[in-house]
Write a structure and sequence with these properties.
The complex is a heterodimer of chains A (462) and B (377). Chain A is of the alpha/beta class and 462 residues long. Chain A has helices at residues 2-12, 56-64, 79-88, 102-112, 147-150, 167-174, 195-206, 218-225, 229-246, 276-282, 316-327, 353-370; strands at 27-29, 48-51, 68-73, 93-97, 116-121, 134-137, 144-145, 163-164, 180-183, 211-212, 255-256, 260-264, 287-291, 305-308, 331-334, 377-380, 385-391, 398-404, 410-418, 423-428, 431-435, 439-440, 444-452, 455-461. Chain A folds into 3 domains: 15-247, Aldolase class I (TIM Barrel); 258-370, Rossmann fold; 377-461, Immunoglobulin-like. Chain A is built from 12 helices and 24 strands. In chain A, strands 1-2-3-4-5-6-9-10 form an 8-stranded parallel β-sheet. A 6-stranded antiparallel β-sheet of chain A has the order 11-17-18-24-20-21, covered by helices on one side. In chain A, helix 3 (79-88) runs parallel beside helix 4 (102-112), helix 6 (167-174) crosses helix 10 (276-282) and helix 7 runs parallel beside helix 9 (229-246). The longest helix of chain A has 18 residues, at 229-246. Chain A is globular, with a radius of gyration of 23 Å. Chain B is of the alpha/beta class and 377 residues long. Chain B has one domain (45-326, 338-360). In chain B, the strands form 4 sheets. An 8-stranded mixed β-sheet of chain B has the order 4-3-2-7-10-13-1-14, sandwiched between helices. A two-stranded antiparallel sheet of chain B has the order 5-6. The two termini of chain B are 17 Å apart. Classes of the chains: A alpha/beta (462), B alpha/beta (377).
Chain lengths: 462, 377
């Protein structure tokens, strides 16, 4: 009898769920303090909560679910004390959001001991190349078709779509190492955010192997708190898209692939949005960002074209690497003498008109050099989309990520890729994997896709 | 629209004093078919219409056929995110059907041409960027080819086309070789308005045969620029510069900078210099209020109609009647509020008549096909 009671008691014990490793954290800014709010995480891959305020009840309930609660600490005179208070409440780690004085960061890290401390800094203060498991920034564009360009009436027949994106920055940041990159920008205030825009924000980061820290606008979060049916349906769509990307962790291990390399210093415009990397992305040309500091032997392996944005910064050894690149048949485009890329001052992460005009000087040459060449993959009928091409270390498996930023599905997308592959598979959040017919093209092979909703992935295998 | 209303409409046009050439301008039959969506059997519709015009075979058997299709503007510029073929481009299903029917009628070679926006790259690229299945088009018939005529393309020299009689704007035009190396020239256009010319039909479609390498803003001053990167605004629309000196120069350069005068006159010149043997007009799904997504006040339109004719002026005249306009309307009257009437100018060159009463309309009547573009706001 006692044994039976004992078993029953055991069944009632809150079983501590396994805690995921930081690189598997799927983060959300959690706006609620009630433990029952966690019911929303049912069937959601979200497993990491960023909390500006916390209660013991919420922290315990999260940990019971295997969800990691992180306390968000803002800069200020009480930052260290707040961090200590959070740690004493048994949070799973700290998020330092904003730009802290170095001594404050050091003090908080000391107080944290072995607990994870994630820094969400300005882009230009990110510890690129560090051993941090997660590198993050609070600065980002709200992805989508640019309002400035969305009204096609203002454009002429040439008016091509410009898409605000963080992809160029994310690729430039990710190339520094193995840290998982978080982008923690929030939805614009006083704006109606449709579900599609949330999906685009998730996909914009995920297609570059990064994670957007999900952040709900106030209207959505209040409707969701009341379990409004439409809001719950939107939440389910968001969760389903997160699940799509999270069910393929292998994609995050892939690296950017392409025949074009852009050598750029992160301190000199390499981390802006709307810069040269995003301009190339809008042309759907696969590109490998090479930080100027990482331009060493082997950095340009596989590339047939290179753009050197800021030639004056290179060391003699790096200049020799570029000379060897051209001697071996590579095409090199160098910025005009005296041309320097710039980083916008202050909190700005995009270029102003004068800076863009200046950038256009080199962009015209880049555009001319790229032309319509296939530098890894060529995509057609993708004007409302952005893409990213990644490959396994042996370059045998290639992944083409597509994200559609329009509110309409796009039909009849064509993909031409270099070389020949035996298998091409279409993966989408909406359905099962679909085998694609591969046909020959002048450049190699091609596949056709009937329809792309918010996103799609093509996997090419030998 | 009742027959009485329609007669009142086309009779309301101001009287136009016809030149001798216009008075004797030829008339040719025009076929109309109702087709409410592209999911219908468009091949059957086109086949019936070609039969109503006397059959394709006698026009194309053992011939090279060059088809100028309407793909105005960049494929990336969309109206409400829709595929260009549902708004301002001709639909690829119709293109494929036409190729199939021409092939079946014995055409030796079917070459689809367009001067792709701001590019000298392969036309296939623009088609793929528009969501078209190029492989399907290639398999529609034997001998299907594509050429971007915005520059030399696959040719070695430009072909010169002299404007017969009294040219309006240029004595002759230098064009891609495809317009010369052909036995039959087809203009495959969209039924829509045009901000500069009032309507885009089979005549205006051929403004796009001008290579931007010579007539573009980035054309070379002396020789063609084989890598054009923009449109024809400064040469064609505004008359602010001459085409490359390698080509015949504008007759009265500097005399007129009004696009509403210049473009219709150039188009009329072209219709005389490079005659159109067959005009086909896609009015199944289109736009009203302008020619492309960059025009303000654009709206979707579903006239559900196809037209074809052996004379471009006659075909456009009937098309205008279907759109609810008088084909003989003059400047100041819709749809020519700010421009000259290209049809009348072509008629002035003796290309064809705008007098609908002289045109034998076959298939569906105009009254039954009418879709008034200015009323469907």
């Amino acid at each position: 009898m006692r044994a039976v009671f004992g078993l029953g008691w055991m069944c009632l014990l809150p079983l501590a769920a396994a805690v995921p490793a930081p690189d598997a954290w799927v983060p959300v800014r959690w706006p609620w303090a009630e433990a029952r709010s966690l019911d929303l995480l049912e069937s959601s891959p979200v497993n990491c909560l960023l909390l500006k305020s916390w209660t013991p009840e919420l922290i315990a309930a999260a940990q019971k679910r295997g969800v990691v609660p992180l306390a968000v600490i803002a800069p200020g005179s009480d930052a260290v004390a707040t961090a200590k208070q959070a740690l004493s409440a048994s949070v799973g780690g700290l998020v330092l959001e904003g730009d802290f004085a170095d001594e404050t960061t050091t003090a908080i890290r000391q107080a944290a001991g072995s607990a994870v401390v994630i820094e969400l800094t300005a882009r230009n203060r990110m510890a690129l190349g560090s051993a941090a498991p997660i590198l993050g920034t609070y600065q980002g564009l709200w992805p989508g078709i640019s309002d400035e360009h969305a009204n096609a009436h203002s454009a002429g027949p040439s008016g091509s779509t410009w898409i605000d994106t963080n992809t160029g920055f994310l690729r430039a940041a990710r190339v520094w190492g193995t840290s998982t990159v978080w982008i923690a920008n929030q939805p614009p205030a006083h704006t109606v955010i449709t579900t599609s825009r949330y999906l685009q924000a998730i996909a914009d980061a995920a297609m570059s192997g990064a994670r957007w820290v999900l952040a709900l606008d106030t209207d959505f979060s209040s409707r969701l708190a009341q379990r409004d049916a439409d809001a719950v349906a939107s939440w389910r769509r968001i969760s389903a898209l997160l699940s799509y990307y999270e069910s393929h962790p292998e994609w995050r291990a892939l690296r950017e692939y392409g025949k074009l390399a852009v050598i750029q210093d992160p301190a000199k415009g390499g981390l802006v949005s709307g810069g040269i990397l995003d301009m190339i992305a809008v042309k759907h040309t696969p590109v490998i960002p090479v930080p100027r500091q990482r331009l060493g032997p082997g950095a340009l392996d596989g590339a047939t074209m290179a753009v050197n944005i800021d030639a004056d910064s290179l060391t003699p050894e790096q200049k020799e690497i570029l000379r060897n690149f051209t001697r071996s048949g590579g095409a090199l485009l160098t910025g005009p003498p005296g041309w320097k890329d710039s980083t916008p001052p202050g909190e700005r992460i995009t270029l102003d008109k004068a800076e863009l005009d200046r950038l256009n000087d080199i962009w015209r040459d880049v555009n001319s050099m790229i032309g319509r060449r296939n530098l890894g993959v060529r995509l057609f009928n993708v004007s409302s989309m952005l893409s990213n091409v990644m490959a396994s270390a042996d370059e045998k498996t290639e992944i083409v990520q597509l994200v559609n930023y329009s509110d309409y599905p796009v039909e009849n997308v064509t993909v031409h890729f270099l070389g020949s592959y035996k298998r091409a598979t279409l993966l989408t959040p909406e359905g099962a994997e679909k085998k694609l017919d591969i046909y020959s093209t002048e450049e190699g092979s091609g596949v056709d896709i009937d329809k792309v909703g918010v996103c799609a992935t093509i996997r090419l295998e030998p | 629209m009742t027959r009485r209303e329609w007669i009142a409409l086309i009779s309301a046009a101001p009287l136009v004093k016809l030149s001798a050439a216009a008075a004797g301008a030829p008339a040719a039959p025009v076929a109309i078919a109702k087709c409410s969506t592209y999911d219908e059997d468009v091949t059957a519709h086109l086949g019936t219409m070609f039969d109503q015009l006397g059959g394709l075979e006698k026009l194309v058997r053992n011939k090279t056929v060059t088809v100028k299709i309407n793909m105005t503007g960049s494929p990336g510029t969309r109206f409400q995110g829709r595929a260009p073929a549902l708004t301002h481009y001709v639909h690829p299903k119709l293109i494929g059907s036409a190729a199939y029917l021409m092939g079946r009628a014995g055409a030796k070679r079917i070459r689809f041409v367009e001067s792709s926006w701001a590019s000298a790259g392969p036309l296939e690229d623009a088609m793929l960027d528009s969501g078209w299945n190029v492989r399907q088009l290639l398999s529609a018939a034997a001998g299907v080819e594509f050429e971007n005529t915005n520059a030399l393309g696959k040719g070695k020299r430009y072909a010169r086309f002299k404007v017969p009689g009294s040219p309006y704007m240029y004595p002759a035009y230098d064009l891609n070789h495809a317009y010369e190396e052909t036995d039959v020239f087809v203009s495959f256009a969209k039924l829509k308005n045009h901000a500069t010319c009032g309507v885009t039909l089979s005549l205006k479609n051929c403004f796009g045969i001008l290579p931007a390498s010579i007539y573009g803003d980035s054309a070379g001053a002396d020789e063609p620029n084989e890598s054009p990167v923009d449109g024809r605004l400064r040469v064609g629309h505004e008359g602010k510069r001459q085409p490359s000196k390698s080509a015949p120069q504008e007759l009265h350069f500097g005399a007129n900078h009004d696009p509403g005068y210049r473009v219709p006159h150039i188009v009329a010149d072209l219709s005389a210099a490079r005659p159109i043997d067959l005009a086909i007009i896609d009015g199944v799904e289109t736009i009203a209020g302008g020619e492309g997504p960059w025009i303000q006040g654009l709206r979707l339109a579903k006239p559900g109609v196809l037209l074809a004719g052996l004379n471009p002026v006659c075909t456009d005249a009937v098309s205008m009647a279907v759109m609810g306009y008088s084909p003989r309307a003059t400047r100041g009257t819709a749809p020519f509020q700010t421009c000259d009437n290209t049809l009348l100018l072509s008629e002035g060159h003796g290309v064809g008549t705008t007098d609908v009463s002289r045109i034998d309309v076959r298939g569906v009547s105009i009254e039954k096909a009418v879709y008034r573009f200015d009323s469907h706001a």
